[in-house]
Records
---
Amino acid sequence: MLSLSSLAVAALAAVGANATPVEVARRATPTVYLAGDSTMARTSGQHMGWGEYLSRYITLPVVNKAISGRSARSFTNEGRFAEIERLVQRDDIVVISFGHNDGGSPNSANDNGRSACGGTGNEVCRSGKTGELVYTFNYYMENAARSFIAKGARVVISAQTPNNLWDGGSFYGGAPPRFVPYAAQAAKNVGNGASFVDHYQAVSNMFRRLGNQATNALYPTDHKHTSPYGADLVCQAFVQAVALNLNGTTPLAQHVKQPVPNVFPAPGGSQPTNPPTNPPTNGGGNNGGGNGGTAPLWGQCGGNGWSGATRCAQGTCKMQNEWYWQCVP
Ligand SMILES: *[C@@H]1O[C@H](CO)[C@@H](O)[C@H](O)[C@H]1NC(C)=O
């Protein structure tokens, strides 16, 4: 697609360097940029990050700049926020999600380059390994957000995703990690142009509904990284929270496609309790090979309201609860 902005840049180039700079036109359609860690990134093997599925549920183009193993600090130091700052144009939207790699102690001798200083303000500390001046999670997040807003873009700060909340067989419904309230605070501190989505709570509510076996099946190797199908569900929880304006209005809300995902019970219980929608029948949107009308091992194969494949490519379709049947070995 040839965008308005590339036309404007081409026009500038054609009239030469001495021309009076003209304001670069905004894009016809805003672009959504994603900044985050492995839980959002395009990954490979048995895992996938949720950012890869966002364009299924919103009407805007999505550019996924999330990358495994990063924190707000290392994303800053590697120039990755700066790269997005160069790319964004007026009215673009940047979704930022960190927290999984931001804990730990920078002042230790084996500082991993990712941990932030304690606190949520202007506190600083020194890396025990390199002497680098290190800032707080909020400092890195708010700095990045302000740099995008200064270019006319809008910022959606997403709380980090939870780990497997059924790890160990019973549901963890306790307090979220500290980076969840920190992220909410970051959006509030930045103010105009920034908004917040409690993605942690949305996914937590979805996992509570899914139950033990169905949730555990979304985690093929560890308690942090989901399968492609799990990432799709985690993405749907984000989009549902956006559509419900769960924690205030974001600029994404008006771009959510119909039908809106319904993977967690809405606060107040006003929505019907449908099963999760749109599971991939090929084992994962971006790295699966199609296998026709069958559900993959561990995939959904039935349940109330289910309209996808009901035969298993591998294993047997077993009822987990009334709205979730699954292919199990
Ligand atoms: C987000 O909104 C929900 C629903 O109103 C609320 O329960 C939750 O505490 C909010 N999250 C944060 C971090 O404020």
---
Amino acid sequence: MTCYTSVFDLFSVGIGPSSSHTVGPMRAAKLFGTTLIEDNLLTGVDRISVQLCGSLGATGIGHGTPQAVLAGLVGEDPETVNPSLPNELAAQIESEGTINLMDKHRIRMNPADIELLPHRILIRHTNAVVFNAFSAAGELLLSRTYYSTGGGFVEEEGAPATVSVDAELPYPYQYASDLLEISEREGLSIAEIAFANECALRPPEAVNAGLDRIWAAMRESIANGLDTRGTLPGILKARRRAAAIAEQLRSVQGERETSLEWLQAYAIAVNEENAAGGRVVTAPTNGAAGIIPAVMFYFNEFLAEAMDEVKTEAVRRYLLTATAIGSLYKGNASISGAEAGCQGEVGSASSMAAGALCEILGGTPAQVENAAEIAMEHNLGLTCDPVAGLVQLPCIERNAIAAGKAVASARMALYGDGKHMVSLDTVIETMRQTGRDMSTKYKETSEGGLAVNVIEC
Ligand code: SF4
């Protein structure tokens, strides 16, 4: 039994604003289209109806879910789709009433064919999407239900949950205590354990090349965010701030210490890119996409040795350690805001970044575990209450603050010897229970918290 999830599943390149509400539904729609092709049904389809259930129905408009579904139905992937295409398709069904299903067969499609059903809650997961394909005579050709379980992961009704990799690993583990035991027994760091597991799935060169690609995409999202001004999409008309913050920080360069303010600017930059529907890396979700890149970039800019090869190695170890920790959250609790509240998204990312930073600052495995634990301990109970269903308020600033918590947690752990009262396993289980007990108002439905107390315009 292992909870290990590959770095390439946990960190996937996609478009914003949400891994569960944009990336996952797009993948589900493409899976449905692929099944139509495999079952030789595609050319008989005249119309498709889509039901966005539970949280997908509650905040789907603000998260761009209908547009994402359209992109998936025309055969696009989140990794490569032109970020402007989903909105263009939404305009197309308004004006023309058609889409080109899987880029092969034109069908009728109107805005009314995508229904928002916030009160239809399916048992397996609140983020459910149901597709029905009909012939011109109205005959139901194919019906499928998929669940978007957070971080862009999709599960089909009737198929087992995908909580881990499906391969023989050299170092399987279920809990943080197992991870520490393997580390002690084998004399390996957390990053080395994750690397060995990844090498069971693909050659070492491919692992390293893939890690470098993830980091390049993260860096690009920071650079784009720091470079772009204007207003974010949606009813809030929120101004982008990262570029202005960066400009102010450059103007005081050399006059005072600004590294932690830059850390915040990096996180805000990524999350503004995400909120604008730009390309980001799910880390482990889109709503929390700024924390892990920001902490790594902060290390590179302010803490690392100057040599590029040192930085490259540190990046790889950082992402691998974050993966080992993130797997614990995905396997034993949840990384989905709709399931566990924001503690599952931002809390998990903060914990992953804290442990990973501790590792590249020279922490022992016990200190890494301690850093990850501290960060989650102080994100417990965090609710998900995005105003107007947009991944903007409180999400963007929340990433900046959680990045700071990650750095503080890593530093605090490094002052200790790794021995501490609350274990990472305990805090993960506490997060799971807290998420289970949390009212649905606070789980990505925009029915509670800031979402009902902030005036939207
Ligand atoms: S409040 Fe947190 S969990 Fe909810 S959408 Fe924003 S970042 Fe995601």
